[in-house]
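User: Earlier you gave me the apo prediction for this protein. Now I'd like the version with flavin-adenine dinucleotide bound, so I can compare the two side by side. Same sequence as before, with the ligand SMILES added.
Assistant: Got it. Here's the input I'm using:
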Amino acid sequence: MSESFVIIGDGVAGSSAAETLRENAPDADITVITDEGEALYNRILIKEFAKGKLPEAPISIHDEEWYAERDIDLRLNTLVVDIDTDGHSVTSHQGDTYEYDKLLIATGGTPAQLPVDNSDAEGVHHFWTFEDARGIKADVEAADTGVIVGAGLLGIDFAAICGAQDVDANYLMRGNAWWRYALSEDGAEIIHDALRERGVTPVFDSGVDHFEVDDDGHVDSAIDPNGEEYDADFVGVAIGLDINTEILRGTGLEYDGQGIVVDEYMRTNLDDVYAAGDCTKFDDLILGEQAQNGAWGSAKAQGECAAKNMLDYGDDEFRWVSSYSITHFDFPFLSFGHPTMGDDSVERKYSDTEWRRLALKDGRIVGGVLIGDLAPQSAYKQLMREGTHVGNEKETLVEKSFSVDDLEAPVADD
Ligand SMILES: Cc1cc2nc3c(=O)[nH]c(=O)nc-3n(C[C@H](O)[C@H](O)[C@H](O)COP(=O)(O)OP(=O)(O)OC[C@H]3O[C@@H](n4cnc5c(N)ncnc54)[C@H](O)[C@@H]3O)c2cc1C
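And here is the structure of the complex with flavin-adenine dinucleotide:
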């Protein structure tokens, strides 16, 4: 009998796993289940749609036919509510049961809600799905004023959307800089200036105490913890992702409070259950500890890796340097690896729009942020991948046109 695979989630992790399974197992039964109403689309590009810069069509990656042509059973609008790991089956909200020999959980996450009054008011948006983007676009186009909360990589998308849609917005941040765990004030100031140029005002040492609403329950303003009031017809909240844990309850699957724990082969603590993408906490072989990635390329690679190991455990280990770029501004921006981790760092500012910072752990690069000039990224990623000890040549690393050959005594990992 042919082996059966069930995949929960048709994001890039789930979809690329299905594709890899089909390529390598022509006779397998493959089912992909998603609670969304549309097949895989480019989640990275939905912000361009919300900005009004891209129509819907090019954002779609696969249509339903793509699955049919590959004999992959795609179930749209189907929420998995229960996993029976002993009985090897999952159950949907309609009560349908899908049996599996091997299961892949690729369920991503759900944006976290601000735990403040009226955070569920009309006009307060979170951003994850294409459906969210449609709602954001409609509301932001009608808005004059906006508030953004969440000084990270998704919050800045909201800010760019407000900028592109001529909304006069305040970006309320808790500390003194955007993404202060990865950037210093010097680096963040480049971002702050670019935001101001687009009509978005960064507000520091702020945040949201609560939202005020009008008689119709629509958000009217945000009140920050200092008592300042900021008018807002539109609010974008991006304070992090919660992994869907309800379906893990009672399964015996290991979850550490942040992600589903998997090894470097994407296998969970149960032999027949794998996980891939944003929902995992994986053995990061480069970092030497468990880590999480929240990036498209990494989720895709994890999906492919999981599929190979579901067919032949141990076939493919996950060894990956993640990248995440921002394309909202006139200058390029790239973060790679784990820029918020490490025990040491080195940084340099080259001009008003060019800056770099590398995070190091035990003398090795574990991540970084490059603004303005991305040319040295491959050198840094190579050193990171190879685990080269560079802690005593930190200043060389941030030379403007750094290349690996500039290092005097690099020591590769043993
Ligand atoms: C607005 C936005 C901009 C982004 N920009 C970038 C960027 O520029 N660069 C970058 O690298 N990354 C970016 N990302 C992050 C990137 O998109 C994610 O890391 C990636 O899509 C994660 O893929 P995934 O397959 O793990 O999860 P997801 O894409 O979240 O897919 C999981 C799927 O599972 C479904 N699901 C969940 N639970 C169930 C269930 N119980 N039953 C059925 N289905 C379920 C979900 O609805 C979803 O469709 C961005 C994300 C967003 C939202």
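For your comparison, keep in mind: The chain has a mean pLDDT of 96.
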